[in-house]
């Protein structure tokens, strides 16, 4: 089992910088607008109640959901197995008080 986890980590480290450009089915204006609308709808009830919102972005290596939840002032815990992905995530969202980044395996 440990070998599978290490191989998975290795693959994700190799493709981290290229992932977003290779997945145009996710990273296009239409899909990004759809995701944003869905998250806005989900958060609508929480915002009405003025509740603080904490989100777990499990396997966050695409950074996509983290971005939308941060934009909506949620506290986000982003987890990933890839050191390279986490480096990119830290660089993209450095300075956000409401973001916690952790590595898991």
Percent helix among the residues? 40-55%
Counting DSSP H or I runs of 4 or more residues, the number of helices is 5
Task: List SSEs in N-to-C order.
Answer: HHHEHEHE
Q: How many beta-strand runs?
A: 3
Structural class: alpha/beta
What number is the mean pLDDT?
87
Uncertain runs with pLDDT below 50, 5 residues or more?
A: none
Note the gap between the termini: 11 Å
Structural write-up:
The protein is α/β, with parallel strands linked by helices and 105 residues long. It is 53% helix and 15% strand. Strands 1-2-3 form a three-stranded parallel sheet, covered by helices on one side. α5 links the parallel β2 and β3. It is globular and about 45 Å long. The protein starts with a helix and ends with a strand. The model has no long low-confidence stretch (mean pLDDT 87).
List the helices and strands and how they pair.
Elements (H helix, E strand, L loop, with lengths): L1 H14 L3 H4 L6 H20 L5 E5 L5 H8 L3 E6 L2 H10 L6 E5 L2
Parallel strand pairs: 1-2, 2-3
What keywords describe this structure?
single chain, 105 residues, alpha/beta, 5 helices, 3 strands, 53% helix, globular
In short:
This protein is an alpha/beta fold and 105 residues long. Helices cover 53% and strands 15% of the residues. It has five helices and three strands; from the N terminus they run αααβαβαβ.
